[in-house]
């Protein structure tokens, strides 16, 4: 049975890495003393080692140790043996590129579909959707495909930002961008505000956290859903 | 001799399409009564016809008519015969995808390198750089390549936005994103603020408009350049 947390962000303003969600993660990773970490998204370009050390610090607060997938000679075997997997944020294109380069897409999918608990934040959440066509990141590398895990039957837009009516900036708002996405694609998009996450258990997909999420469906007006809403009817 | 205007935006806040730059364009397109417009970036997903009509309205104020490239049976021939070319903003991925699909990259390059005046705004400016790896747009379609015209020996970041020190949003700033780009790429990036443009004449590349631009070079601290600065030494 799938067991996944798809979180908008690793860090909410004014608090440490994963701090807002650590109580939840203690239960989620109950049966995993060691978490297998996928550091490929390299936020700010930091190395895999640096990123893993940072995440290890955060997880040590709930008594878990963290090992980076780059430390294993055989990353496929590491995924197959993992008791819990975490993919952190950074640049979605860099992350996806590295997953394809190391031929790990299908291995992660198989492990997670078999029930290995998976936590994603930001870029690590983006890849839980059907494609990365709704990432906010800059396309600093060119991956061989935009297709990703498809753990949920829609796309994710993490760090969802509401339009700022006072802005004089002429760049597109997030809502405009997602509307443009729907001129070329039909799957729904769930905009997750910071501090929100989706809890996926088998076929159930429930919005968690304090805030509403914004749902964009093809050829419909976008709408708000409250925390606690079951989203498994989106498709 | 190349003759290009690479503008950050088509529209500055509180003014009509191209209004801020129309006096400049009247001179720039002096020898072109009709402008060939490339509407492929489809801002907000509008059709090629709708976009062309909007741009035609703007150019009519300086006595020019506009014809969309999609109106021609043979778009390559249209480019070869054009007296002036304008590529408007919208979604960079959609634009690049369509240029590749219609096999027009080399044809535009040849025309512009032969001296046909070319105006780009926003997405239409992004493609004047080496690649679109520094676009701000959402990757709503997957183009066959990120390589573009390379009219200047660096990348462009249009709509350049300074970091907002008061923001509580945890998404990356533009500067962070460009720094991440330089973990994987070495070419310089010129961040063009709204209302700024680059004037390319042969080998000269001069910053125009009222504002400074921000230049990011590989492995160096970013720096400001004043309007009027010659940028052809960047590489």
Automatic annotation (TrEMBL), chains A, B:
CDD domains assigned to the protein according to its UniProt record, in alphabetical order: GAT1_Peptidase_E
Source organism superkingdom: Bacteria
Pfam families per the UniProt record, alphabetical: Peptidase_S51
InterPro entries: Class_I_gatase-like (IPR029062), Peptidase_S51 (IPR005320)
Swiss-Prot/TrEMBL keywords: Hydrolase, Protease, Serine protease
Family annotation (PANTHER family): ALPHA-ASPARTYL DIPEPTIDASE, PROTEASE S51 ALPHA-ASPARTYL DIPEPTIDASE
Family, per entry: Belongs to the peptidase S51 family.
Listed name of the protein: Dipeptidase E
